[in-house]
Amino acid sequence: RHLSIAFCIAGLVRTFADPRVFQSIRKNGTDLGRRVKSYFFYDVDFQGRPLTDFSVALDVLPPIAMAVDDGREHDDTHCQHAGTPSCAVQFRRLRTCLKLIEAAEVKRGRKFDWLVRTRPDLRWAAPVGDLAAMDPDVVHLWGGAGGRDPSDLFALVPRRHAEAYFGIVCPTQRQVQSRYCFGKVQRADHVQWSCECAHRVRLAELGVRTSPLPAIHELVRPAVCLVGDTKCERTEGFR
């Protein structure tokens, strides 16, 4: 039978309308073997831009379901110790994406085989490979060499580990203190952690093994900072 893969495209839309991004997902993200069918789910912030700006991209990568999240609020009290407020927003979008995928599974009568976490501003330089040859017992992540935390930009996740990855919430201080991660810093009265650290801690807590993927993705940055892009503003255009 065909393998089925659900793509979760989540985040600020930034450069999603750029053909370098959406065409690379079409070309390389769906080139996963002859017997693989791809489905697309979105949880995005359109940054005040009209949907028509993305009509070509959405025609190429047609959504099965879409949620819109402006990133303004979160209700996870543990997130106060994150290194950036965007962690809470990212995690909420991933959880919402999983709910959209689960609803589609009920409708189609069976579960997807794999889930992919990617972003609207991430260009795929090459395919990840043949899904049939991928280890279905581990979460495949980009980066993590030299003890560093794997990137939170991309993940290839077997369905059995979907809740472990996409169901992420902000970790407690006990969890961060008891697990190794590169992206944590001891402050005067708490341990501050990065989004990547939180992912690593959660997977370790749940006993989920990971495997590294080659660096085949790159961010395509916008020429100017758009509405609601606090990271772009904070870094003066990602400089």
- Which structural category fits the helices and strands? alpha/beta
Poorly predicted regions are: none
Query: How can the largest sheet be summarized?
Result: 7 strands, mixed
Question: Span between N and C termini?
Answer: 47 Å
Shape: globular
* Number of DSSP helical runs: 7
What oligomeric state do these chains adopt?
A: single chain
Name the beta content range: 15-25%
SSE string, helices as H and strands as E? EHEHEHEEEEHHEEHEEH
How many β strands by DSSP? 11
Quick synopsis:
The protein has 239 residues and is an alpha/beta fold. 28% of the residues lie in helices and 23% in strands.
Structure write-up:
With 239 residues, this protein is an alpha/beta fold. Helices cover 28% and strands 23% of the residues. It is built from seven helices and eleven strands. The chain has helices at residues 19-29, 55-60, 86-108, 162-166, 173-178, 195-205, 230-234; strands spanning 3-12, 36-45, 63-68, 114-118, 122-124, 139-142, 155-158, 184-186, 191-193, 210-213, 217-219. The strands form three sheets. It has a seven-stranded mixed sheet. A two-stranded antiparallel sheet has the order 5-11. Strand 1 (3-12), helix 1 (19-29) and strand 2 form a beta-alpha-beta unit. The radius of gyration is 17 Å and the shape is globular.
